[in-house]
Amino acid sequence: MLTSVEVLENNETVFCVGNKEHITEMKREDEDKIYQTGVIIGQLAFTHSYKILFAGVRDPDKYTGTIRCYRYPLTGRSVEGKGQGMFPKFVEYQGHDRKGVVAMMVTHDDMNLITAGVDGTIVIFEIRDKEARGTKLSMREGFPKFSDEVLVTKDEMTQLETDQKARKREKEEEEQITNQGPNLESEDAQLRQLREEL
Fold first, then answer.
1. What is the mean pLDDT of residues 156-174?
2. Does residue 140 lie within any of the structural domains?
3. Which CATH number belongs to the domain containing residue 58 in this structure?
4. Which distant-in-sequence residues (6+ apart) come within 8 Å of 46 by Cβ?
5. Is residue 59 a part of any domain in this protein?
6. Per-residue pLDDT for 137 more than 60?
7. Which one of 3, 54, 132, 140 is least enclosed by Cβ atoms within 10 Å?
8. In terms of pLDDT, which residue wins out, 168 or 190?
């Protein structure tokens, strides 16, 4: 029984996992490749650049709930005595409890991996490998990030400073006028004094 399938952009390569301790790579014109994992993988997700394959472990008999990161194309050592295949290199992160990972996806900008576990939690991992993130985004994949830098000319900066100084002067003049305006309280007090004297 298969639990997850990932298709590469060329539509010629398919990765799948099920209830066995391996990842299968199937190509249209080539022999299937078996990658031994040592645990049952429940979910797969590729970055949109197809440089990293994420695998969510869901093995009730062994440790589980971890996220494995494999560089694509998968490389590693050949498995001896276990029949066929190879054991690819990976880095592993704990994300969920022993019940395992049930769903995972990479965001359209390849910045985050979002996973869901049987434990009812959703975990968001930041993808820090810049090489694995896609550098070009088409309009259907999302909008490119804007730069943190804003370039302006020297004339524009001078004009901005002049405008700021003029606004500051106007504000100070308004405050002076407000402060110098007629003081009605003191005039009322003077009128009362004059009436009392009369």
1. 89
2. no
3. 2.130.10.10
4. 6, 8, 15, 52, 53, 54, 72, 106
5. yes
6. no
7. 140
8. 168
Identify whether residues 19 and 104 lie together within a single domain.
yes
pLDDT value of residue 132: 56
What Rg, from alpha-carbon coordinates, does the chain have?
A: 33
**Mind spelling out the 3-state secondary structure of the chain?**
CEEEEEECCCCCEEEEEECCCEEEEEECCCCCEEEECCCCEEEEEECCCCCEEEEEECCCCCCCCEEEEEECCCCEEECCCCCCCEEECCEEEECCCCCCEEEEEECCCCCEEEEEECCCCEEEEECCCCCCCCCCCCCCCCCCCCCCCCCCCHHHHHHHHHHHHHHHHHHHHHHHHHHHCCCHHHHHHHHHHHHHHC
93 and 185 housed in the same domain: no
Which of 50-54, 58-62, 118-122, 127-131: highest mean pLDDT?
A: 50-54
Q: How many domains does the chain have?
A: 2
147 found inside a domain: no
Dihedral (C-alpha) 116, 5, 25, 80: value to the nearest 10 degrees?
Answer: 40
Instruction: Indicate if the pLDDT at residue 19 is higher than 90.
Output: no
Same domain, 117 and 167: no
Same domain, 110 and 191: no
Q: What local confidence, expressed as pLDDT, does residue 183 receive?
A: 57
pLDDT of residue 131: 62
Pair of tokens at residue 73: 């194309």
Residue 20 and residue 66 in one domain: yes
